[in-house]
Recover the amino acids of this structure.
């Protein structure tokens, strides 16, 4: 891609979490860059420990939208020797190394521009020793030629409520860092980025977007158990749900969380829980129960590395099979996957709609990377919010005889009565049941009810088509295609653009509903392709397995299972390899 | 902390209808063995909700798994037959989403004290405004006679052929220790008293825990045993005296029946209402919330 070196900057910041403030440095810088008129995209890896261990946060800033973490580094801010040792080789020629000269003295390198800053000393000079990281932010603001006043505005937004002294100290530290660079390394910044064309932007994380989306969807009840990386959804809703008359309960475990959600939904309230892999495991019995009792609910799984406790702060897409098939016997449910931070807002609203419309659990597969990273996105358009109601029993219009909660209907959806509706009394039943809810074990009954529960899930494809719950882009006629799910779409987007510029067209399809899978649409998409690549952040290729069951053609798996998201370069290399090996062999 | 108090009644529907106990019988016939203690509890329950004048459409009976788990289907009311052990969070969700409803959780000793034991302390400390009726037969009946957490030491059954090597828990003492604000014990063979305990439990604002000895005639017939060892609580017992309640609960020569303990403490519904009142100091607007993230 022929982007000018100075327009698309990747800044990595690293240090020891025992000293603290590393992620804060990156997020503050990202917010200042966003407010200064740039598009930003952050990535971070943090240790699972509470204190101690290496932390890295990366900020990519550009005048145009960016959809991946970026590849090599333009700027490295090393707070300590370990950061320098880990990432020095990732610096591009001509890149900038900023380091805390009170901590390390790296050897000179003609390829790299050094900026040694005595961060601790500068912080002490303004009477705020703990402010060394804000000093660093100030220095980066100058190096990136960002707006110092916007920097102050961000600090005021972040710390305005923490008292005058805290605010004053931080503002002093910010300015001291900025001035130090100006005085010691010249008034001219090494970079100058033009500002973006679009003025209006939000800078937020996937979990924040998701929580706002849940509120927009009319969610009034949340129960959850703390788990990384889903906890901040709970904290967000703890602050906001009571303001809309809703309820947030921190449950004693994940089973209790989902049981509470089912109880709330039984009364007609839109209800949700959020967890990560270990919590989803514990919920499996209750997911089957929600299927059997046909109780709407939304279950967010912010995927992290497993198995077992795994790597709580690292990204994975390893929960697809659990989401699709967890719980014993056939328990059909809807499974969805947002592809971006924006999608965490819009798609969670569809998740609630699907749960309510088809009276089913909906498992919403986010991931650690998109849940925590801050990115600039277009503002949410509330006029696009559509609310789909639950099909309810009408006590005043009961011409069809006694109320039957699980009436066998053509589409499998039966009107639901809610406590308080006279004549609608029934027992939501986890045993196999007759249409009226009474337990029953006859072979014909079980078969009909199994088919009813499966039928309505297939009907959800109508909703998928109506709202076009997929992403499709690239060259529609390309011989090579990529089909994937979730947040891998970001690096895929950049890799496909780069490939197109180099004469390797690629078509891309990302379904956002993975069950029911839009099989016909996917079938048409992959038809006549010479090669189809399936990138996934898991080892076995769970989505590729799912496709292999449905379609007889081969799929080329691209699996990354290192706890880090794909880089655009990794996807690009695969496209090139496929073009070289598969396409050339086919045409030879 | 007076500002953290908001009065919310147990349910505005109590006392709004006059129905007979049989009006609460559903069309589903109980599948219990003839002579099962649960029949006595069910009859007492019909009588209790009829006496309290609760409209069938405003009552929800939630249950877990076990013989007693079938209970909701036999009652003309809304019901939720949940999975094993999760009846308390299930009932909590129902009550919090619709605080106006009368919510009763039912289950057995396996559901309450084994697989679901982890939920009891939390329902109690939250003081969630539900009534929990535990039909305790000291055995796993539905799975045909394995020892339960309340089975006596040395009990010989198919899963303990040389004598049960474990000791039983003390449910009343446990509920007291967890902070339940209403703790009572009954015996299914004494239905009038059981009716009275259920009525008091439902009328109590907060978490009401009622253990009811409910013998299993098929796998562990304890009718004679309980007739011999149970007795009414001493007439001078003061139910506001928690230490006295605990002492009486620890008595093992005599198993006392009646209301051990009763305390007035804000219910979970009330505390959450207070949270909403505090939160509402800042009016909610979705667009304002989004604008916080503008850059």
């Amino acid at each position: 891609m022929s982007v000018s070196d100075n327009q698309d900057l990747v800044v990595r910041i690293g240090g020891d979490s025992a000293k603290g403030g590393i992620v804060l440095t990156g997020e503050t810088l990202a917010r200042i860059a966003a407010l200064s008129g740039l598009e930003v995209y952050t990535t971070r890896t943090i240790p699972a420990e509470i204190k101690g261990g290496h932390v890295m946060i990366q900020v990519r800033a550009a005048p145009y939208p960016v959809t991946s973490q970026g590849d090599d580094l333009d700027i490295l801010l090393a707070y300590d020797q370990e950061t320098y040792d880990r990432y020095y080789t990732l610096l591009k020629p001509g890149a900038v190394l900023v380091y805390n000269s009170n901590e390390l003295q790296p050897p000179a390198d003609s390829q790299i521009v050094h900026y040694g800053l005595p961060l601790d000393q500068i912080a002490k000079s303004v009477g705020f020793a703990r402010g060394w990281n804000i000093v660093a932010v100030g220095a980066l603001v100058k190096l990136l030629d960002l707006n110092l006043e916007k920097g102050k505005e961000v600090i005021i937004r972040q710390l305005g409520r923490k008292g005058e002294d805290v605010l004053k100290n931080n503002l002093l530290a910010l300015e001291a860092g900025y001035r130090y660079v100006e005085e010691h390394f010249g008034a001219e910044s090494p970079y100058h980025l033009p500002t973006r064309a679009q003025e209006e932007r939000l800078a937020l994380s996937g979990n924040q977007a998701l929580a706002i989306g849940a509120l927009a969807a009319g969610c009034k009840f949340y129960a959850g158990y703390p788990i990384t990386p889903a906890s901040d959804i709970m904290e967000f809703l703890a602050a906001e749900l009571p303001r809309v008359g809703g309820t947030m309960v921190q449950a004693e475990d994940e089973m209790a969380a989902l049981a509470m959600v089912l109880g709330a939904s039984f009364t007609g309230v839109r209800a949700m829980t959020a967890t990560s892999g270990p919590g989803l495991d514990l919920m499996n019995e209750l997911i089957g129960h929600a299927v059997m009792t046909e109780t709407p609910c939304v279950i967010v799984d912010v995927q992290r590395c497993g198995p077992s406790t795994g790597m709580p702060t690292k990204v994975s897409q390893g929960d697809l099979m659990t989401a699709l098939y967890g719980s014993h016997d056939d328990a059909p449910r809807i499974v969805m996957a947002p592809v971006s931070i924006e999608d965490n807002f819009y798609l969670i609203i569809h998740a609630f709609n699907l749960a309510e419309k088809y009276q089913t659990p909906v498992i919403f597969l986010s991931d650690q990377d998109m849940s925590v990273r801050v990115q600039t996105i277009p503002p949410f358009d509330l006029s696009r919010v559509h609310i789909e109601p639950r099909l309810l029993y009408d006590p005043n219009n009961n011409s069809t005889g006694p109320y039957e909660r699980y009436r066998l209907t053509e589409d499998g959806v039966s009107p639901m009565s809610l406590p308080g509706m006279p004549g609608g009394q029934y027992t939501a039943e986890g045993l196999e049941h007759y249409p009226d809810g009474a337990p029953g074990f006859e072979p014909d009954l079980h078969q009909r009810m199994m088919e009813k529960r499966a039928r309505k899930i297939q009907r959800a494809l109508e909703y998928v088509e109506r709202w076009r719950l997929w992403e499709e882009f690239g060259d529609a006629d390309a011989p090579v295609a990529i089909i994937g799910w979730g947040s891998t779409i970001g690096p895929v987007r950049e890799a496909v653009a780069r490939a197109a510029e180099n004469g390797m067209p690629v078509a891309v399809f990302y379904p956002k509903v993975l069950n029911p899978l839009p099989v016909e649409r996917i079938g048409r998409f992959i038809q006549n392709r010479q090669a189809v690549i399936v990138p996934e952040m898991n080892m076995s290729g769970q989505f590729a397995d799912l496709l292999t069951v449905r379609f007889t053609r081969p799929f080329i798996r691209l699996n990354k299972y290192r706890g880090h998201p794909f880089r655009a370069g990794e996807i690009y290399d695969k496209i090139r390899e496929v073009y070289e090996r598969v396409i050339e062999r086919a045409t030879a | 902390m007076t500002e953290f108090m908001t009065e919310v009644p147990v349910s505005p529907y109590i006392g709004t209808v006059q129905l007979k106990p049989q009006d609460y019988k559903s069309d589903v016939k109980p599948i219990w063995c003839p002579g099962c203690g649960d029949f006595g509890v069910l009859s007492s329950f019909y009588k209790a909700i009829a006496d309290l004048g609760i409209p069938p459409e405003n009552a929800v009976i939630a249950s877990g798994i076990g013989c007693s788990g079938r209970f909701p289907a036999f009652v003309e009311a809304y019901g939720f037959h949940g999975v094993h052990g999760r009846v308390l969070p299930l009932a909590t969700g129902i009550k919090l989403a619709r605080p106006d409803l009368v919510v009763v959780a039912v289950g057995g000793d396996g559901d309450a004290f084994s697989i679901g034991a982890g939920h009891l302390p939390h329902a109690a400390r939250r003081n969630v405004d539900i009534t929990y009726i535990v039909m305790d037969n000291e055995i796993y009946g539905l799975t045909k006679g394995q020892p339960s957490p309340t089975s006596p030491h040395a009990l010989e059954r198919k899963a303990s052929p040389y004598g049960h090597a474990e000791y039983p828990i003390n449910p009343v003492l446990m509920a007291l220790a967890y902070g339940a604000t209403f703790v009572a014990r009954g015996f299914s063979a004494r239905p009038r008293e059981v009716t009275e305990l259920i009525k008091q439990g439902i009328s109590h604002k907060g978490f009401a825990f009622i253990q009811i000895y409910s013998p299993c005639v098929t796998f562990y017939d304890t009718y004679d045993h309980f007739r011999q060892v149970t007795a009414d609580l001493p007439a001078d017992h003061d139910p506001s005296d928690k230490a006295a309640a605990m002492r009486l609960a620890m008595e093992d020569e005599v198993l006392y029946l009646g209301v051990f303990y009763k305390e007035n403490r804000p219910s979970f519904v009330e505390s959450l209402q207070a949270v909403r009142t505090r939160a509402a100091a800042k009016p909610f607007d979705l667009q304002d919330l989004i604008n916080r993230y503008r850059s």
Notes: Residues 51 and 471 of chain A are 40 Å apart (CA to CA). Residues 443-466 of chain A form the longest helix (24 residues).
